[in-house]
């Protein structure tokens, strides 16, 4: 961990050109990097299709969230295996994929 950041804008442009989606796991950026700790994507003005944020690093609690649009959330809820969405030792099956009310878009 030496503080390097990926060139997210260039990577996002490449994924869009290829018709792919960008998934960013910002475990070490959220809570630390950018204005108000909004993370690496916000600091570089990049809005990936999937953004994984973990709460164990900067926030000191367990858990994580996948931030995405509603269509992607519906797809994940319908087709992802529960083991893909949660830790295998989680307390209850399916607990990793729940819909949260409200606007969770990056601003």
TrEMBL record:
<feature type="region of interest" description="Disordered">
    <location>
        <begin position="87"/>
        <end position="107"/>
    </location>
</feature>
<dbReference type="InterPro" id="IPR050087">
    <property type="entry name" value="AON_synthase_class-II"/>
</dbReference>
<dbReference type="InterPro" id="IPR004839">
    <property type="entry name" value="Aminotransferase_I/II_large"/>
</dbReference>
<keyword id="KW-0012">Acyltransferase</keyword>
<comment type="similarity">
    <text>Belongs to the class-II pyridoxal-phosphate-dependent aminotransferase family. BioF subfamily.</text>
</comment>
<dbReference type="GO" id="GO:0009102">
    <property type="term" value="P:biotin biosynthetic process"/>
</dbReference>
<feature type="domain" description="Aminotransferase class I/classII large">
    <location>
        <begin position="1"/>
        <end position="82"/>
    </location>
</feature>
<dbReference type="InterPro" id="IPR001917">
    <property type="entry name" value="Aminotrans_II_pyridoxalP_BS"/>
</dbReference>
<keyword id="KW-0663">Pyridoxal phosphate</keyword>
<dbReference type="Pfam" id="PF00155">
    <property type="entry name" value="Aminotran_1_2"/>
</dbReference>
<dbReference type="GO" id="GO:0008710">
    <property type="term" value="F:8-amino-7-oxononanoate synthase activity"/>
</dbReference>
<dbReference type="InterPro" id="IPR015421">
    <property type="entry name" value="PyrdxlP-dep_Trfase_major"/>
</dbReference>
<protein>
    <submittedName>
        <fullName>8-amino-7-oxononanoate synthase</fullName>
        <ecNumber>2.3.1.47</ecNumber>
    </submittedName>
</protein>
<dbReference type="InterPro" id="IPR015424">
    <property type="entry name" value="PyrdxlP-dep_Trfase"/>
</dbReference>
<dbReference type="GO" id="GO:0030170">
    <property type="term" value="F:pyridoxal phosphate binding"/>
</dbReference>
<keyword id="KW-0808">Transferase</keyword>
């Amino acid at each position: 961990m030496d503080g390097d950041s990926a060139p997210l804008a260039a990577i996002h442009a490449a994924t869009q050109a290829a018709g792919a989606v960008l998934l960013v796991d910002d475990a070490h950026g959220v809570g630390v990097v950018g204005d108000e700790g909004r993370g690496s994507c916000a600091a570089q003005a990049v809005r990936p299709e999937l953004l994984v944020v973990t709460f164990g690093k900067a926030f000191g609690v367990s858990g994580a969230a996948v931030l995405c649009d509603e269509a992607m959330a519906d797809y994940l809820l319908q087709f992802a295996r529960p083991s893909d969405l949660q830790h295998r030792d989680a307390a209850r099956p399916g607990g990793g994929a729940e819909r949260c009310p409200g606007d969770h878009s990056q601003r």
